Amino acid sequence: MESERLMINIFKNATILFFSFLVSCASKPETPEKSVSNKKTNLSLAAKGLSKSSDLQIINSKSAKNMNCTKPKLNTNYKISELIENSNACVRKMDYVNVESWAKSIGELYPNEAWNNYYLSIVHENRKEWNKSKWHIDQALTKSPNLAVLYYQAARLDWQNKDYALCFKNLLKSLELDNNNADAHLFVGQIYFRDQDFANASKHFFSVLNLDSKNEIAIYGIAESRAQLQDYSGAVEMFDKLMNNQSTKIEYFVRRAEIIEKNLKNLDLALKSYQEIDDKYKRSIWKGNLDLDLKAKIDELTAERNKQKASLNKQNLEAEQATKGVKK
Question: Quick check: 85 and 52 in contact, CB under 8 A?
């Protein structure tokens, strides 16, 4: 009964932590080159139905990330790829005034493209004008029904509107069209975790790691999913991966210590783990919310270990005396 209560509390805490990640994930717009142009194909081929133009070029992700957010120049005949690059640069800088300016330029130069509505959806989302944001993403999907990033944006708005079933449907559609969207996999994995489908959650978290090998949320998701499936050694292995990746979130390592103590019942390693947490927390190497009296826990485990050692020494002494008695 006590172990059941422990697991319920642990699952509740893990779900709360994941829910905070979900909210963060749902508030992060996707920049198109991540879900479209990371494939070594022409944009027009990667996004069927997006454009009838033949001069779309692959967006260079690195150059786009290093670009400054500027205003569009008047009377300039931009290529669509240039417009997307500049729009993305402004999205990253959260300069939504200029995002809107670039979106309007797309609308003027390429009125049949979905990107004008896509970026305006992000602009209105930032202003919390949900109905306008939803209208623009619906218009974008009408123009380009096979573009993954549009379904991802729609899913984020569905989450905001608490239409979780439609959110999930749009996320799956996004991944059907582009399985290389790490953010979408992360979103889906967390929803599966919330619904206690830990096998499918792990599947999507591993898909994230295939694209982003050090993603903390995905690693934690696999660790916690394994713990819920009672693969405790596998869970500790993933927490160790977080440690090796220099994560500083103390909640991860408290959870690791709890699994070692309560589930693997390795008293020495658990004590060592809590002592390491205490040391790194005091030195501000690991940070976060610590809902645990570390001193009391360390004292408790130290006393338990001493008790076990005393019991073992007593058993060894009795065995030794018994052996001497047989010899006599």
Answer: no
Q: What is the DSSP letter of 287?
A: B
Which residues, other chains included, contact 19 with Cβ-Cβ below 8 Å and sequence gap of 6+?
194
Q: Are 250 and 16 in contact (CB under 8 A)?
A: no
Tens-place pLDDT, residues 249-279: 999 999 999 999 999 999 999 999 999 999 9
Candidates 90, 144, 94; CA nearest to 117 is 144
Backbone phi, psi, residue 249, to 5°: -80, 110
Contact 187, 25 (CB under 8 A): yes
**Domain 31-180 classification at class level:** mainly alpha
pTM: 0.80
Q: Are 226 and 235 contacting, i.e. CB atoms less than 8 angstroms apart?
A: yes
Amino acid in position 326: V
Contact 299, 258 (CB under 8 A): no
- Confidence (pLDDT) at 24: 59
Query: Is the pLDDT assigned to residue 61 strictly greater than 50?
Result: no
Beta bridge partners of 249: 287
